[in-house]
Write a structure and sequence with these properties.
Shape: globular
Number of domains: 3
Strand content: 5-15%
Distance between the termini: 79 Å
Radius of gyration: 31 Å
Low-confidence stretches: 1-24
Number of strands: 6
Helix content: 40-55%
Largest sheet: 2 strands, antiparallel
CATH topology of the largest domain: Lysozyme
Number of helices: 12
Mean pLDDT: 89
Length: about 325
């Protein structure tokens, strides 16, 4: 078909409307038609091609020095430096989520750090909580829950109540104190806060086994599963960025951060037939009561064990502030 068309075109010289050039001869006609097809194809590609994204992506800086819980990070080693670089880079470009975490820190950081201080732990463990749950009542694929991501068995082992009505993994104060118990026990075992933190991810028994067959007891020297190998570095990266947010492109004003919750503590010793009615009696609603007390997991409390629960009740007018 192409040959017959070209044969006809050879008989009738014509003018290029684009160039006003006389086109004669079989070769010239073929070249000209090919050019038209190519030009049309390029124009179509330009119309359908997505616009280039204009952005500036850089590798964020690694600090000259870093530490976790007072223990220095050996950044002189390239593998250690690169591991921290990886976590800083990932978190730096986690724009929306990190912005929200920084806002939540305005509400929860002082509260958690106060408990850490009372329990004799370094404030850096706050950033481990950030790494665990992003300061939210999260649920992991392994069904670890709450701000410190306790599994049910571990939560009960460290004194937290877990049932269909009450789940203290969602109680910031109680779960933080339970986590502190774990860290202090792990420190007694390993003599290192960094290894104590790492064991929170993989378990003390697993760390002990690896110390045994690797003949090493330094987190930064040990071969660990990828998640655990990244775990403490992630906390250090959060600490680095959240303490110097503008160095990493986060310009979040103090007024942008969420304010600490304002509440009064009401002791509940008996049964609560309906938490919504309880909330109404305290000039609030069930939504706000749950926000202040995530550990409440049902609309009622049978309290068969006759325990005393401290319920945080929003102060009057705090919702409008």
């Amino acid at each position: 078909m192409k040959t017959s068309i070209l044969a006809v075109l050879v008989l009738l010289p014509f003018t290029s409307f684009c160039t006003n050039r006389q086109v004669t001869g079989t070769d010239e006609v073929a070249e000209y038609i090919t050019g038209l097809f190519d030009q049309n194809k390029n124009e179509q590609e330009r119309e359908t091609r997505p616009q280039t994204v204009k952005q500036q992506v850089v590798i964020p800086p690694v600090p000259a020095e870093a530490s976790f819980a007072g223990e220095p990070v050996p950044l002189k080693y390239f593998d250690v430096r690169e591991a921290l670089q990886r976590e800083i880079t990932v978190i730096t470009y986690w724009h929306g989520s990190l912005s929200y975490i920084i806002q939540l820190a305005g509400r929860y950081q002082a509260r958690i750090e106060k408990i850490l201080e009372e329990e004799g732990l370094h404030p850096d463990f706050f950033y481990l909580c950030v790494a665990e749950s992003s300061l939210q009542p999260a649920v992991s694929p392994a069904n670890a829950k709450g701000y410190w991501q306790f599994l049910t068995s571990t939560a009960k082992e460290y004194g937290l109540e877990v049932n269909y009505e009450v789940d203290e993994r969602y109680n910031i104060e109680k779960s933080t104190r339970a986590a502190c118990k774990y860290f202090k026990k792990a420190y007694e075992k390993f003599g290192s806060w960094t290894l104590a933190a790492a064991s929170y991810n993989i378990g003390m028994a697993n760390i002990s086994d690896r110390i045994g067959y690797q003949s090493l007891s330094d987190y930064y020297d040990m071969q660990l599963p990828l998640e655990t190998a990244r775990y403490v570095f992630r906390a250090i990266a959060f600490k680095t960025i959240m303490n110097n947010p503008e160095d990493y492109g986060f310009y979040i004003r103090e007024s942008d951060k969420f304010k600490p919750l304002e509440y009064e503590t009401v002791e509940v010793k008996g049964k609560i037939g309906n938490w919504s009615e309880f909330a109404a009696r305290h000039n609030t609603n069930f939504k706000m009561l749950k926000m202040y007390n995530e550990w409440i997991r049902s609309n009622k409390l049978d309290n068969k064990g006759n325990k005393t629960y401290k319920v945080l009740v929003p102060v009057d007018g705090c919702r409008e502030r």
